[in-house]
Amino acid sequence: MTAKQFYSAEDIQAYLVSNLAEILKLSSNEIDATESLESYGLNSAQAMILVGKVEKLLGFQPSPVLLWHYPTIAALSERLAEESEVKDTKVSHKATTPVLDLNAEAVLDPSIRPPSGNYELIPDPRRIFLTGGTGFLGAFIIKELLDKTNADIYCLVRAENPEAGSTKLKQNLQLYSIWEEQYNTRIIPVLGDLSLPLLGLSPEGFQMLAANIDIIYHSAAMLNYVFPYQALKTANVLGTQEILRLATQIKVKPVHYVSSVAVFESTAYAGKVVKEDDKFQHWNGIFLGYSQTKWVAEKLVKIAGDRGLPITIHRPPLIAGDSRTGISNTHDFINLMAKGCLQMGCFPNIDYMLDMSPVDYVSQAIVYLSLQKSSKGKAFHLQHPEPAPLSKLVDWLRLFGFPIQMIPYEQWQSKLVTDVTSAENPLYTLRPFLLERWSKEQLTIPDLYAQARRPHVSCQATLDALAGSSIACPPIDSQLFMTYASYLISSGFINVA
């Protein structure tokens, strides 16, 4: 699949305009080559379709990251024209990708500082503010807060009016079968947007919210395995800064921040044990845009803590489904990867550990720990205490009747390129995540996530803090797998035929 000729920037621009219009169901006249691609609202699937079309024209697959480093069709066309003239396109791209200094990104607005005076934990908060209520983990945190407190839950939600906001939140809990009609009066929508200044509220509305709420749970984040840091920064980093601003206005409000074990993805931690109270100073070797934003955002929370804001940090891994019902988020990486590999008929034979924790365990632990006075200023690891190897998952799938095999990783990558050529396989939109090469060693993200290159995330202090609470992480065994598989099959997500 090599190009037989070079294409000029004008040729590529005309091709991109035509194909972007087709993807978005617009006319070519409605596409402005000087307009930011982000303004057209491309999702990761559409971005990959566009990249796939360019690949067919040029004879090589350009990195989707270029869609953000060269954010207009005009600029992207110029860059792709240069790449089409270079035999080794990967070297060309890597030489021109801007170097991101995460430490320089971790700067909190100096005006964000809590009022002076000591803060005492409110044992029975009446008004809780929560972000992420329309997400998977957020839905379960809402349920847990409603069950374990007497508070009303004020949920940030993007909607046209309060009725639409309430419906959106209710439907999300219904989706995961955790809705109860008694919740109706206690879930209150706050119309706004995490990616906007003051969370999209008016200055008066922001101040009113700051005066009324008692505590904040910040679990919202834009999760995308394709987008680079700059595409996620506004929501994940600047949005966290606005949450911290809210927490310090008028009166002090503790912030319980849902971070990620991804803050330890730097190669500096490879093979090392990282504990809850370890500082995370290293960022070199964090390549995934989402992980980069979580590193910076948690740094902002830490800075606010150093300024006197009461904070607690919760670091989950990948989050699996409800261990009791099997209900899962079918848009998450675990399920998309499993479904895609089943369609391929094979999994990569890679030393990878399944350390995902069930969503009910994560939400119960977050709420319980957040209500303990001793948790102030601490971080907690919600990592599964007993991970299972990927090979164990494949064994269970075989027992379930799926004719699959494990093949060498390089062979699996080749099949991913040759066999997965449309969005019918969910791995298609994840190909940049799975195939993009990083670091001097030119490793893919899955290479970098191999067990030998990952830290050993200790959760012992978290388990100690949960002792006596009856909250325990279910083992990753055949029973848990059967619970998940039964749901995925009965819902139609996975086809056994």
UniProtKB/TrEMBL annotation:
Annotated ranges, domain Carrier: 7-84
Highest taxon, organism lineage: Bacteria
UniProt protein name: Thioester reductase domain-containing protein
Keywords, comma-separated and alphabetical: Phosphopantetheine, Phosphoprotein
Matching Pfam families: NAD_binding_4, PP-binding
Xref: NCBIfam families: Thioester-redct
GO molecular function annotation: phosphopantetheine binding
Keyword Phosphoprotein: yes
